[in-house]
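Quick log. Single chain, no ligands specified.
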Amino acid sequence: MSAAGVSERQSDRDGAATRTRLLDVAFAEIYEHGYQGLRVDTLLAKAGLTKGAFYHHFESKTALGLAVIDELLAGLADLVWGQHLAQFEDPIEGIKASAAFALGLLGPRTTTLGCPINNLAQEMSGLDPAFQQRLAAVFQGIIDNIAAALDRGKTGGVVRGDVDTRAAATFILAAVEGAIGIAKGTRSETALQSALAEAHRYLETLRAASAEG
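-> predicted structure:
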């Protein structure tokens, strides 16, 4: 390979690393301060980058925010409710485990900062249609994955045949997000665990009689 080719590949790698750095720092800033609290100058100072680097990758703060949704928040949702949940033959146990996995990823931030996806939806869905549409798509993807897992459970005789899987999936997501929201509002791990315990009891009502015990 020519020197020019090596230099071009290195430039591509450096460019990708810069873009990733911008997204990662933007995610952290949005999670802690909200999108409206995000300041490009602060972002660049924390990322150790210039305005030129920023505008090379993103035409605006809005474009950056939408990329955080599309590439990081959607990816996080798929990791938890797509890839992780798909590993379980028993979707009821899988949903419990996936919720626990999500909480493990958030760690102590669960009771101080809450859920980054729901936070941004609450902040921006009424202010910007593009944010609303992107975040709605993330939520719908989660619901789709939970419903698909419950459908697999019905086929395998684990989930009751009369369960409306999409309605159940919507309620399950609402229960998990609500538990995290209450934990954030009260700064209470006890409240979080109490709400999740009730959600677990609901999940067990979905189990087919032949699969109980």
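The first helix runs from residue 3 to 33.
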